[in-house]
Amino acid sequence: MSPTASAANAAVQSLLDDLVASGEELGLQVAAYRQGRLVIDVWAGLADSRTGRKVDGDTLFTVFSTTKGITYTAIHILAERGLLDYYDPVARYWPAFAARGKSRVTIRQVLTHTAGVPQIPDGATPEDLCDWDRMCAASTVARSLNS
Q1: CB within 10 Å: which end of the chain, N or C, has fewer?
Q2: Active site residue 147
């Protein structure tokens, strides 16, 4: 690891340690790549407060909306260049999206969260969200009920 990467890693580690020590965060991790190389790889705090298990480099976290900013920026650039229109149906670009009555949902509706597409299966618990097999099974059941 280069001296610059080591300094950045140390600075981010210090920030994470401070966030956990302050009580603002229970446990978290940060990984960042620059030009294809891992330059920051740090973690702090607890992954499970009940058992006291600490966060490590393999701890899985549920993340929501992390790609929205990048995706929305790309969509706005495409619209600015005239390559798509906000009022186009999503299915024009992603035909499979039209299934189960979504053929008229527009890009604008998706961007403004007015498309009416549910986010998680009914009754899902926080524990369920971290269980890959359970969430895949719930998604499969939901798809079969809606088809």
Answers
A1: C
A2: no
